[in-house]
TrEMBL record:
It comes from the Bacteria. This is Uncharacterized protein.
Amino acid sequence: MKTIKYIIITLLLVGQVGCIDKKFEDQFKVTIDTDLFNQIAVIQVFDPSGQSNLEGDTALSVEVLGDDKDKVVTDAGENISKLKIIDGVVNLVVNPNKNIENNPVEVLLKISGDNYLTTTVPVTIGIDERTEVSAYVVNKTSPVDGIEREEKTASIKNGVSEEQIVIETEIVNQTKNKAKVSIDVGTQFQDINGNLIEGDEVELEVTNFSPTNIDALTSFPGGFSPQSVTLDGGEVVNDVAFVTAGFVSVDMEVGGVEVKNFSKAITITMSVDTGSMNPDTGELVKLGDVIPIWSYSKDNGQWDYHGDSEVVMIDGKLQVEYTTTHLSWYNMDFYGRRCSRYSWWGDSSNGTPVTLQLSLPGVSSSDSRRLLSTFVYEGTSQEVSYNATKTQYWYDGQTFELNNTPAGRNLQLVVYSGDSRYNRGEEIFRSPAFDGCAGGQVNIDASSMVSKLPPAPIRIHVKYSGECNDRIIRPSTHLYMFNETYNYWQYKGYIYRGEITLHDMELNKPYSFRVYYNGRRHEHTITFDKTEYIDDNYNIPDELCNQL
């Protein structure tokens, strides 16, 4: 029987491959490549207190927000109303019929769960691009170092405070700052429409985040390059870059109804971490510095300018104090603008992103190491955005083209010994500072990290296909492998038309793999006995076949 390659070029977005004439199938065996979309995104959400907490599809829920939300569908081509987070994994694709001009697509994922603080994750899917995004969520029952949470229940009468209510976090869990919320006597607790919420108890939660702790910084909602920010004066822009001096989440409920507003202004006091950098002066934050305060809506991911606050000395500590009549996340943030290679992402007057070229003597592309890296503001651990942190292949002559970069701030490239956010490892290289918007090429001498690189990995090249209902399938999908050391499912890369190269492997050892499709997981265990693994008769589960 002859075999031909059949590439689907018409997609009917119904989650099925489509119909092939039976007479045609009788004469030919059809090979189907499942890479139907050119713009793909995989988002892996981490709970740093334990990834097993996210197993299944009930721990977290997801909602897609943003102007481009109607342009994306599930990986099965279904409406995003059916989108699920399973084991912390979300797959999105761009519907080409809704993106005729083939522009980058920006959406915001609103992620929530009973035991988690609601957050948002910005996702930008570039032109003909497979986008990989990782993000942290905050487990309210087990916050990690750098995050401190306080709960309190206070008595009120018919939705009105009869005495001053104060809730304050402590300086523990390696946090170096704290937050306090004060509510005056006679304050009404109101819902989103400004209506009084009648009740005799108010439940309060305050979560404070250290601006110098990596785990806390990675939990920042929406990342430090948000998609939409309202500036002082009301201008809405999409090219702001934040440098934080600390942030806090404040939530309240009366009788199960979320408090959104108050009849009187409440006071929020935040201490300033003495290790926080003022990027406008290049020095540590000090008494008299003015820091802009921003509010964040977890309902739409919008950041709004709230006001300026001067750093003052209270009880011998640097602090800022401000008032508000509505609840949200609040963030002490210096800010600047961004430069971009694309006109729709930024003002060209902010500069042009640079291209980095790496010098790593003695490490060829065939001997490359797969390591986690990020871009941070000079002298800090603050990642410039979610997209700044990725697992890359490192070798001599490797180039990195920056696309959307903070302007007017010096950056540093940081490389870790681990290969994922969940397995970050130790910092093994930090580049000299450079201007990310200076244009042209920046040469990075990374020779100092050669001696710190992990041993050269065993690579296994996998090529496989299988039959589904008498059709040969060459899958294209994201692949995860169980990491026994850190007890989580690690993203290993993208299988393209049945091929992938796996790094850091061992021969004659069983490995468990997962793929996700249409909100379901599929698992398989394989033991490799050679570095070139070809399987033309791969057993594709019937359940998965029936979905294709």
